[in-house]
């Protein structure tokens, strides 16, 4: 969804994970999302302690301390995070102010730092942004207490994603399961459509929905990042984990046949204008928020039946008044190749002004106590393995969270988040713009590849 440098590497386990590991993770996701009957997993079986059961987390008293925390979060996401910050204030006495940031956040932080007013902590949405902050001398390493909290609560892969040159700079507070397709349950019921598990089945389901009189997909083309996520899921499934990692590092070119294959597959949806709400032109004017609204407003005659994006779609669904798990249901992104994909994203807490207060806040954000508060409020997913599964407010979220934790280290982080910001994380430029152009003309696969490679080569300096 947004940036990193060419020197970034995924975790050791992530690099060596082969197709079989991806298959296990994808299978766990599919099983957990589609399981019917039986008791929900509400036991909090990961073994963590919620705030209700009594916390062992020790935080210092920080009376008189003032802190600023910046993040590109709005609406309910921002409001719910402020509840977490309020709990930190209750426990420590520190006054914490949330600073709304603009995207890309690295540019926003650069302006704040140039003006002599950096926030104490920033939530960065890309591994590449963390590295940029380190390279510019902005980011400060996490102290022993915060690192210890991370080690207790996170798998090695999630710890490693927050490291630069072996030092821990980021604590991933928020995760995203980005291998999901949400659908209007009433439309599927009326059409007699079923949840697909393969790409070919997805095309069949789309045709069934179309024949019932509803446009199958809403595509958020106005925002470039959802388009990169579409591509990444198809590419990971078809090309496999090793090639995914190599393309993320620009060790293979975007003119590679594997990219051609993924774009050709993607064009099977994007190239059918009657399958996309508003056609290509309309999709390019459709924001991410609009794409969700098009799918879950209008009763059983919405503008679209399905929308692709991560677990965070639930927040937007809630704003349409549709009920998650009843009106709005979800299935794993179908396998376009040998295995179904498991793509993740996330936001890491990074210290910009080192102080006891900033270190304590990041320690708190790395604890199950903080994540449990926001998990209960909905629309949030934590990579913290000690957050009780019972904290999530509905069956769909509990299953998505369990699938993420059960995947362990066998996942792939969002590819565009691993690219330099100028290629993978800037509106109107690089991959975002190139895929918007491809959405407008899905028949020009070769042209899209050439543009992607030219922009990637310029950004990676190769």
From TrEMBL:
Tell me the protein's name.
Carbohydrate ABC transporter substrate-binding protein
Source organism per UniProt: Streptomyces actuosus
Q: From which residue to which does the signal peptide run?
A: 1-37
Q: What does the sequence similarity comment in the record state about its family?
A: Belongs to the bacterial solute-binding protein 1 family.
Keywords attached to this Swiss-Prot or TrEMBL record, sorted alphabetically, are: Signal, Transport
Please verify whether the record's keywords include Disulfide bond.
Answer: no
Entries under Pfam families matching the protein: SBP_bac_1
Positions of the region Disordered? Answer: 38-60
**Which branch of life, at top level?**
Bacteria
Query: Cross-referenced InterPro entries, in alphabetical order?
Result: Bact_solute-bd_prot1 (IPR050490), SBP (IPR006059)
Coiled coil spans? none
């Amino acid at each position: 969804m947004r940036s990193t440098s060419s020197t970034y590497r995924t975790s050791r386990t992530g690099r060596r994970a082969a197709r079989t590991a991806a298959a296990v993770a994808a299978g766990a996701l599919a099983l957990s999302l589609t399981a019917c009957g039986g008791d929900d997993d509400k036991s909090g079986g990961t073994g963590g302690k919620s705030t209700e059961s009594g916390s062992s987390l020790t935080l210092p008293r920080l009376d008189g301390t003032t802190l600023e925390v910046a993040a590109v979060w709005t609406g309910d996401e921002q409001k719910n995070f402020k509840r977490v910050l309020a709990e930190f204030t209750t426990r420590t006495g520190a006054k914490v102010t949330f600073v709304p940031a603009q995207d890309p956040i690295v540019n926003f932080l650069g302006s704040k730092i140039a003006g002599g007013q950096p926030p104490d902590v920033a939530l960065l949405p890309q591994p590449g942004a963390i590295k940029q902050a380190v390279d510019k001398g902005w980011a400060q390493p996490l102290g022993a207490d915060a690192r210890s909290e991370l080690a207790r609560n996170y798998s090695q892969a999630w710890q490693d994603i927050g490291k630069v040159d072996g030092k821990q700079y980021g604590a991933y507070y928020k995760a995203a399961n980005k291998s999901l397709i949400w659908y209007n349950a009433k439309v599927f019921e009326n059409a007699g459509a079923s949840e697909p598990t393969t790409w070919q089945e997805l095309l069949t389901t789309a045709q069934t929905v179309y024949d019932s009189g509803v446009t199958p997909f809403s595509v958020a083309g106005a925002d470039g990042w959802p388009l990169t996520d579409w591509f990444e899921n198809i590419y990971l499934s078809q090309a496999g984990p090793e090639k995914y990692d190599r393309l993320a590092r620009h060790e293979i070119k975007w003119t590679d046949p594997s990219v051609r294959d993924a774009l050709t597959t993607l064009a099977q949806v994007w190239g059918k204008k009657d399958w996309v709400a508003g056609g290509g032109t309309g999709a390019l004017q459709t924001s991410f928020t609009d794409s969700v609204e098009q799918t879950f407003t209008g009763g059983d005659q919405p503008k679209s039946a399905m929308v692709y994006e991560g677990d965070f779609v639930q927040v937007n669904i809630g704003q349409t008044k549709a009920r998650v798990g009843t009106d709005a249901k979800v299935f794993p992104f179908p396998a376009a190749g040998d295995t179904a994909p498991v793509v993740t994203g996330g936001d890491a807490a990074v210290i910009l002004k080192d102080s006891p207060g900033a270190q304590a806040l990041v320690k708190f954000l790395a604890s199950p106590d903080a994540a449990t508060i926001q998990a209960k409020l909905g629309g949030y997913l934590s990579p913290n393995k000690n957050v009780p599964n019972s904290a999530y407010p509905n069956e769909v979220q509990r299953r998505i969270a369990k699938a993420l934790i059960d995947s362990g280290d066998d996942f792939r982080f969002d590819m565009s988040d691993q690219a330099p910001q100028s290629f993978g994380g800037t509106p109107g430029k690089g991959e975002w713009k190139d895929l918007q152009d491809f959405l407008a003309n899905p028949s020009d696969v070769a042209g899209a590849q050439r543009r992607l490679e030219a922009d990637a080569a310029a950004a990676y300096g190769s």
